[in-house]
Amino acid sequence: QVHLVESGGGLVQSGGSLRLSCAASGTIFSVHRMGWYRQAPGNERELVAGITSGGSTKYQDSVKGRFTISEDNTKNTIYLQMNSLKPEDTGVYYCNAEVRVTMVSYTFTEVWGQGTLVTVSS
Known about the structure:
By secondary structure, the chain is mainly β. Helix content is 0%, strand content 59%. The protein is built from no helices and eleven strands. 28% of the residues are buried. The model has no long low-confidence stretch (mean pLDDT 95).
């Protein structure tokens, strides 16, 4: 199995900062892409930031200039540096990855982490 473990969530005041981490472990041949999704109660899970193995990044418009996604390929880990946090950033942040689990088959599998709660108070 492939496991994604998120950490770094918590309670922070508006204008503060947090850094989320997501470490992928298990049987992994290679990682194609990883990203962060956010879900608030009653809302759909939406992409916040993503990064490919080639280093290409994508951000939700609402977080551009405030959030930065980065990766450490040697550790199969991604980070989300969140600055200038706003109450609307509140939600459960889920790590997502598309991974190739074996060299034998050119097949990619999408994996989700358990989520980490980020609460921004006003």
